[in-house]
Design brief:
This protein has 209 residues and is an alpha/beta fold. 14% of the residues lie in helices and 32% in strands. It is built from 5 helices and 13 strands.
Length: 209
Amino acid sequence: MEIDHIFIFLSPKGEEVDDLVRFGLNEGSGRSHPGIGTRNRRVFFENFYLEFLWVENEAEAKSLQDLGIWERSKFRDSDYSPFGLCLNNTANTDSIFEDSLKFHPDFLPKGNVVDIITNEKMPWIFRFPPKRQKKNSAEPRVHQNGIKSLTRAVFNLQRKDFKEILDAIEGESIIEFRESLENLLVLEFDNNQQGKIQKFKELMLEIRY
């Protein structure tokens, strides 16, 4: 299973991403999500991208009670996981999303849905329709610190639910889920060739490269 992108909820305006820019990552484009109430900042790599989300329209976010967008954005008070994992829509993900929530956001054409597995303690696991997926070829992918491709993604979670689904994702991917006292996303790039580790406490993120 391949990762399309991973998101992390941040404080309003996502100013924490400035630390990644100072670290040597080249920021790409960002945009709003009509009907969902969120906005993002993004950093692109050769095989996936990192998305940083915050709520800019409280009413829209609160209206989607089944999705838990508002609660997830308030993760420090609600104990929801701040993470999201988007898998590429391929045949080997069909069984994972068989009983998932079907959501039609305003920015998708009629009849197209996003498959979502949502649970407060778990990442928002989802996939877009196959034709919706883009490679974002115009986005910058060359970074000053030499980071290129994701080779491992470890989600440290306060509780592991949906064990069968998580086991299925782990079995065919570079993804791992661990139970932990804190929410922390550990991303390894380029098989840690440089032997370096950079921690971003406010982002709940550790980068090994």
